[in-house]
């Protein structure tokens, strides 16, 4: 069995690629970083370190790699013969991957290949569906019809904290022990891909929203408030009582939404939240707030982890006071090394809080959430 995985980065090597390899696939990573591709191709294996009390090491074998920038033809041929395709490149990078993926799928269809599933493992709602739209946007109507009947793009939710790497070995990757990979079986074509550790569900919405609005909302709040208070890591931030208290309030708010919207049992949800707090506090993890807060413009999107739950709560008559603090802290995120953080501050300087929320999330300046966020933004500026 052959798997093609776009993105040999943290989650690519430390989670998706590892699970595929352990399920018996030969994994062909596709990346644009020449040093990474060369190292994988040369060594054909790497090691995962589990950041837990036991400090376990896991070998990942039977891997190879291709450079999509310099070897597009080989990538196309490999996709044409693959049994599954996955991505973990980042939501904004999917559009760069789509043309090559479209060429690979076209080649497969020309050769009369069978059904194939393409699973985007990105932190976003509807990642595979977006990838399908981008791929079919490159195709003729006839090709689109063939893709519709043979190529599945099941949406997925992936959860494993893979922090910035401290390893000196380019390929070794440190990960938390926990993982969860949920795939919507309604989007699958042909047989369900056999991947150990994947849970297939009928309808992904409850799972992806629970993950994004708990793990990633909580993470973002710790990162942005922590950064504002001068902390370098999520672990330092969450140890501050004021951050911890805001996080508790934020999780109460998103929990209220998730329980009402998807019918989760409140006790089960409290347990889920407790486990996530425990994961964030993992003493073996050192996860910089700059990684967790990266790309603030993406994270301030209308359906994303902060505004998404806040707006849905307001639609239900609930005031998201703690989420408003998280949004305000996100607007204060400054990091010269992060192009989106630089752009965010440029927008804020020119347009102010209301203008920025309009430009970034299409939120009307009259929306009541804008006033709340503005007040919180001012208070944070005064150190309150
Ligand atoms: N790190 C985590 O804890 C975690 C957990 C769950 C989900 N995710 C999601 O996984 C995705 C990847 O995150 P990450 O932390 O692994 O990031 P990363 O930066 O470590 O990895 C991304 C990889 O994609 C490669 N890449 C960039 N452009 C490419 C292109 N055009 N073609 C092929 N490869 C390309 C990069 O070179 C890099 O190796 C994101 O959507 C993220 O939200 C991350
Ligand atoms: O990857 P992002 O930038 O969407 O979000 C940063 C972190 O919250 C994220 O990578 C988590 O570590 C991950 O989603 C845990 O499963």
SSE order and pairing:
Elements: E1 2-6, H1 10-22, E2 26-31, H2 34-43, E3 45-50, E4 57-61, E5 63-67, H3 72-80, E6 84-87, H4 94-110, E7 116-120, H5 127-136, H6 141-150, E8 151-152, E9 156-159, E10 173-175, E11 180-184, E12 198-201, H7 205-228, H8 234-238, H9 241-262, H10 266-280, H11 289-292, H12 296-299, H13 307-315, H14 321-331, H15 339-361, H16 368-381
Parallel strand pairs: 1-2, 1-6, 2-5, 3-10, 6-7, 7-8, 11-12
Antiparallel strand pairs: 3-4, 9-11
Helix pairs in contact: 3-4, 4-5, 7-9, 7-14, 9-10, 9-13, 9-14, 14-16
Family: Belongs to the mannitol dehydrogenase family.
Enzyme class: oxidoreductase
InterPro entries: 6-PGluconate_DH-like_C_sf, 6PGD_dom2, Mannitol_1_phos_5_DH, Mannitol_DH, Mannitol_DH_C, Mannitol_DH_CS, Mannitol_DH_N, NAD(P)-bd_dom_sf
Overview of this structure, please?
With 384 residues, the protein is α/β, with parallel strands linked by helices. Helix 4 packs across helix 5. 52% of the residues lie in helices and 14% in strands. The model has no long low-confidence stretch (mean pLDDT 97). The protein folds into two domains: 2-202, 3-Layer(aba) Sandwich (Rossmann fold), CATH 3.40.50; 206-381, N-(1-d-carboxylethyl)-l-norvaline Dehydrogenase, domain 2 (Orthogonal Bundle). The protein is globular and about 60 Å long. Strand 6, helix 4 (94-110) and strand 7 (116-120) form a beta-alpha-beta unit. The strands form three sheets. It has a six-stranded parallel sheet with strand order 5-2-1-6-7-8, sandwiched between helices. The protein starts with a strand and ends with a helix. The protein binds nicotinamide-adenine-dinucleotide and D-Mannitol-1-phosphate.
